[in-house]
Amino acid sequence: MKAWEVTVSWQQRTVAPTRAEPPKVDIRFPCPALSRGAFLVAFLVVGLGVVYGGGSWLGVAPINLLQPEWTRTHMLLVGAGLLLGTIAGFIAAAFAMLIPVRSEPFNDFLITEWQFGANTSLAWFMAIGAAVSWSLGSERAKLLVIEMGAERQAMAVIGAGLCVGLVIGAAFFAAVVFRLSPVACALIACAIALPVSRWELLRYGVTGWQWIAVGIAVPVITLGVSPAMIERDRRQRRVIMEDSR
User: Fold this and answer.
1) Contact, 181 vs 235, CB < 8 A?
2) Which is more confidently placed, 243 or 129?
3) For the chain, what is the mean pLDDT?
4) Who contacts 214 (Cβ-Cβ below 8 Å, separation ≥6)?
5) Which pLDDT band holds residue 5 (cuts at 50, 70, 90)?
6) Among candidates 12, 8, 6, 85, which has minimal Cα distance to 45?
7) Burial 100-137 (b: 16+ CB within 10 A, else e)
8) How confident is the model at residue 11 (pLDDT cuts 50, 70, 90)?
9) Is 68 left (phi over 0), alpha (psi -120 to 50) or beta?
10) At how many degrees (to 10) do helices 150-177 and 104-136 cross?
């Protein structure tokens, strides 16, 4: 056989993947809430670790959230924290997606807790901030938060909102199981949020009616937006399970 014939034969050979479709990942019992929770934890641990740990190691002053005076080092630390935290979050979310959650009711419970915890903590933070600013005035409220420690107060308010959201989420899950009416569920949620909003605002010296507004508005908002997100996560789980078969 001549050399040119070998070349022609090689050029006519079809090179193609052995599979008609890419292999499917074995994710038979995923839990979107568990994956998102893993992403958040990894992002916060790595991101904050880079910002504060790196700042302490480099000897730079901590960042004041309300009066930021960022140097180039601060900007590099924040950028590195966001980048590395995001990478760590995606890695943690991918591993968490492989953890099988076989029980459908338990998966629904985790989804409910995630959505109510996330939505309530965000709404709570905004509502408490608005109530304090409304009662004390924006400048006085800002000085008070700086005096009390802006970062510490932000974590305290978000933590209180998260706890309220988790309790409301558990109550909502129980209300769905026992087929309670939406009105009864809303009353239970407000009964949970009102005492906490009263205590939260008293820490800042707010004694007016604002605690009632926060204690009613936040549960109503979260009860309005969370069920649709819960159903989206349940549908996402079913789609992933079908694609993994």
Assistant:
1) no
2) 129
3) 84
4) 124, 127, 128, 131, 193, 197, 200, 201
5) very low
6) 85
7) ebeeeeebbbbbbbbbbbbbbbbbbbebbbebbeebbe
8) low
9) beta
10) 140
